[in-house]
Amino acid sequence: MQIPDRVSEGRGYIIRLVGYLSMCHDQRWNVFQWQRSVAEQQFFVRVKLAHKMDVVYTSDSCDSDSREQKTVDLGHSNKRHLDDDLLRVSKSKKLAEDIETVLLNHNKLIRVPLSLNDFTNLKVLDLSNNRLEELPEVITQCQLTTLIVKNNLLTDKSLPKSLLGAAGHGLKELNLSGNRFAHFPEQVIELRSLKYLYLGGNQITNVSKDIWKLQNLQLLSLGGNLITEIPETVGLLNHLHALVLCDNLLEALPASIARLVNLKSLLLHKNRLRHLPREIITLRNLTELSLRDNPLVVRFVKDMTLNPPSLLELAGRTVKTCAIRYAAEDLPRTLIEYLQTANCCVNPNCKGVFFDNRVEHIKFVDFCGKYRIPLLQYLCSSKCVADTSSSDPGSEPNSSMMRKVLLG
Fold first, then answer.
1. How far, in Å, CA of 209 to CA of 169, rounded?
2. What global pTM score does this model have?
3. In this predicted structure, what is the pLDDT of residue 43?
């Protein structure tokens, strides 16, 4: 039976199109193929030659180089062991030296392949979404800039005693989110080049006071833990752009937060915050503030009873408010030091002072032109609370302003 000319022409067109697409595909990809024995399947490792840097980070890093990148992608292989697969690649020394990224994510790995040490120029290693219970010393021998080990089974005893070595000196991104850490891993403090640190989704209850030593840190993610307190030393992270503290047990923030002059994003939702430190209004570069799901209220201490001040407090207030002069020989040294701790009442209509006895008051103020946030201020007596409310018509936010605070 003779095929009509139109059908014949259509088939010819399809054949030519498939050939053209195949040629284009061959030009863009170099495929390295090794032939296994007859009983084995053929094994392919695809090495993508990217003309533009297309970083295969699985976390949210924005740090990248502009040189060519070559990747071995064994992710989503659903395997427990990948040693043999990596060994086949590393048999070719030249190829092993060219590899910069190894993706072993979404498998069933229970240990890290030791053959990773053969990739002498390895920069990015993704071990996320496996079943790893420890990181071996071999990790520290690689010249990594990015190490992603999120969503595994790592605990406080899973890391090497030191993360320094070839990896530690150049490591810029470390992602340990979604594991089982109960304490802040102190080994991280050694990584002075670190820019991005992800520790969210663990069971961490504390933050190391030595966190200030990570002076290059730009992003610190601690959301989804059990943290109750943030150390004052966080305020010394001068280059920090993003601070994620959401979904913890925080009831207050340190005043040192105001020192983070480069901070652009501050995520505080799902905590127990009732107020924010007054100093936070100085963060002029802040463009993202999330406060939803916190018990922020206008009058946190409305019904709080004021304990009567001690005789020492009353005497000290009298000396300060009446400007009574005294010399060093007139009073014991301890009383002189006590008088030096006097704090002025923030009520502009009051000239009083206080020492240990004070009244806490929540005042809402405009912040960055976007929010009305509750700030804690201290007054010398409960009378000053009424004075500040009546003198400031904007101290009581309306419902729309309150929504801005709660939703962030």
1. 21
2. 0.63
3. 33
